[in-house]
């Protein structure tokens, strides 16, 4: 695994992402199995990761007259 970043704010995440090519994830449920499968197929490329799971406010759903916004940390049970 390459570099791992876990920012505490959205501004910090944007700063890190502006200087690195990163794979964004929030828990790894999809990332780690896909990395394992790629490794088994001989297609693995090391990448750097940014974990957004600790950024406050990304778990919100907002509904307005013309849009529904679903944050990247919204769960199925919300």
Structure commentary:
The chain is built from two helices and five strands, in the order βαβαβββ. With 78 residues, it is of the alpha/beta class. The strands form two sheets. Strands 1-3-2 form a three-stranded parallel beta sheet, with helices on one face. It has a two-stranded antiparallel ribbon with strand order 4-5. It is globular. The mean pLDDT is 87.
Topology:
Blueprint: E1 4-5, H1 10-17, E2 22-25, H2 31-40, E3 48-51, E4 61-63, E5 68-70
Parallel strand pairs: 1-3, 2-3
Antiparallel strand pairs: 4-5
The helix count comes to 2
Helix content: 10-25%
Q: Give the biggest sheet.
A: 3 strands, parallel
Give the strand tally. Answer: 5
Query: What does the average pLDDT come to?
Result: 87
Q: What structural category arises from helix and sheet content? A: alpha/beta
Q: From the structure provided, what is the oligomeric state, counting identical versus distinct chains? A: single chain
What is the helix/strand order? EHEHEEE
In short:
The protein is built from two helices and five strands. It has 78 residues and is of the alpha/beta class. The longest helix is centred in the middle third of the chain and has 10 residues, at 31-40.
Keywords:
2 helices, 78 residues, three-stranded parallel beta sheet, two-stranded antiparallel ribbon, alpha/beta
């Amino acid at each position: 695994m390459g570099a791992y970043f876990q920012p505490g704010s959205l501004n910090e995440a944007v700063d890190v992402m502006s200087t690195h090519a990163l794979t964004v994830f929030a828990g790894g449920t999809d990332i780690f199995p896909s990395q394992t499968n790629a490794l088994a197929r001989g297609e693995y490329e090391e990448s750097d990761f940014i974990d957004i799971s600790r950024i406050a406010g990304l778990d919100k759903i907002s509904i307005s007259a013309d849009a529904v916004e679903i944050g990247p940390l919204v769960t199925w049970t919300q």
